[in-house]
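dude i think i finally got it to work??
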Amino acid sequence: MCPPDTREILKSFRTFAVVGLSPKPDRDSHIVARFLQEHGYRVIPVRPGVDSILGEKCYASLRDIRERVEVVDVFRRSENVPPIVEDAIVIAAMVVWMQLGVVHEAAAEKARLAGLQVVMDHCPLSEYRRHFASAPRPR
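look at this
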């Protein structure tokens, strides 16, 4: 199976729900989410027990979000991915994006069968830099 085109995903989809987004500025999830915000993406934090991160209201789960989520960006351990994929399917997300080191083949297959694109073991920040390093910011 051919992996999804991360360049096309980053060009086409503008709203990322970041599951596991840390309120700590030195954490990878925070750095990536801030980068996405700075490059014109809408970031919706998903982190139970936290009111807001990066100036955005936090949600306890994907199912609590009342606006359209296109990409579910997963900053959780691989074994925690299946219920996140279930929620991504329920909210009709377009993409499940698992961060570096996050791989769950069975959950990925379930997402694909439901019509979602799946990216595993990649970072949107790194992929953005790889594809758009010399290009202007997308609007």
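The two ends are 31 Å apart (CA to CA).
im so relieved honestly
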